[in-house]
Amino acid sequence: MKTSVYDKTDKGREEIATRKYQVPSKLRALLLLVDGRHTLEVLLKNVAGLGLTQEHMTELLEGEYIVLISGGEVEQAPAEPVARRLSSARARVGTHARAPVYTPSPEELAALAEAERFRALQDFYSQTVKSTFGLRGFALQMKVEKASTVDDLRALRLPYLEAVLKAKGSEMALSLRDRLDHLLGEKPDSDEFVA
């Protein structure tokens, strides 16, 4: 079932454009990412850090904001909106026309970029905490795992770098700071960690 591909319905597109149905912000972020190309597995992987799961997809499906377009069992999703959308598209451009090219909106791109940044930051922290501190980094690792936004991970920057400085010295702290700041999209403070 995780190979299923979903797309927005007309109602879902209307919600993105106008916020008419006042979908909660967490669900709206997921709705933004549903594009008719990425599998359910990829979508859930991208939003795992935001606490979004299969149940949230089901909510969007039941609210008729999204529809199953391939994979999975068709009985789970109302197929009517897709058929209606395809027939209206064919009527507009003829029966032999190619499918319209999907262009993500700026909001969709921003939500995807934020989810990818969160995942990259979480991976960076997890890998470097384990390799730098071993078991001594357990408390910091738990904070990383509890983080649910990029801002939560940004707040761990200074405690993390101070711990690296104390455990491994300024050279390692500077190196990891530069990598972390690159992921955060920030300029490093040149006076920080000068020995």
Which terms would index this structure?
2 domains, 195 residues, Proline-rich protein
Q: Helical amount among residues, as a percent range?
A: 55-70%
First-last Cα distance: 55 Å
The biggest sheet amounts to: 2 strands, antiparallel
How do the strands line up in the largest sheet? Answer: 1-2
SS-based class: mainly alpha
Radius of gyration, taken over Cα atoms and rounded to an integer in Å: 21 Å
The portion of residues forming beta strands comes to under 5%
SSE order, one letter for each helix or strand: EHHHHEHHHHHH
Instruction: Supply the number of helical segments.
Output: 10
Shape, please? elongated
Total domain modules: 2
| Number of DSSP-assigned strands | 2
Please, could you describe this protein's structure?
This is Proline-rich protein. It comes from Massilia glaciei. The chain has 2 domains: 5-103, no CATH class; 108-184, no CATH class. The longest helix has 28 residues, at 106-133. It has 195 residues and is mainly alpha-helical. It contains 10 helices and 2 strands, in the order βααααβαααααα.
Fold topology:
Layout: E1 5-8, H1 10-18, H2 25-33, H3 40-47, H4 54-62, E2 66-70, H5 80-93, H6 106-133, H7 138-146, H8 150-155, H9 157-168, H10 170-184
Helix pairs in contact: 2-6, 6-7, 6-10, 9-10
Please summarize what this structure is.
The protein is mainly alpha-helical.
